[in-house]
Amino acid sequence: xxxxxxxVDRHRAPVVADERTMLEGWxxxxxxTLLTKCAGLxxxxxxxxxxxxxxxxxxxxxxxxxxxxxxxxxxQFAQLDVPWLYYTPEQPDRDLQDVADADPATELAxxxxxxxxxxxxxxxxxxxxxxxxxxxNDVSLRWVYLHMIEExxxxxxxxxxxxxxxxxxxxx
Length: 172
What we know:
Elements: H1 19-38, H2 43-46, H3 58-77, H4 94-97, H5 104-122, E1 130-132, E2 138-140, H6 141-167
Helix pairs in contact: 1-3, 1-6, 3-5, 3-6
């Protein structure tokens, strides 16, 4: 039996709500958009670099976003001592590049877990709460949300192109 990425129930972000609800809504919308771009594809398709000369794949994007979830919400904001998922000094782009033997079911589960752990790390915290970044400047949780929305939006554009090249599927 061939494995196929499951369907995703994507929800629109609210258009009238408080700031936190809107930020969380837009971030969730973009998380779900990435998963929507993966839905219905086989493991081989998820590992396929479809826009030469780039080696970028949908599975690589899922892994990259999981690493970003961990980095910004848990390692940086919550200051938790958790290791990188994929990054090593010898292979800083391993999340994006080393997908040939990666199992999509495992990687999608890791992504879902990082999203949930990130939610837990910021639960009850103010958008005005800050941390000192690795560059030595104060960064607010509000900025982290905005940065993550931007990060997903950019990569969802990549995912659009990859998906269209794989099977012709287009959409927002």
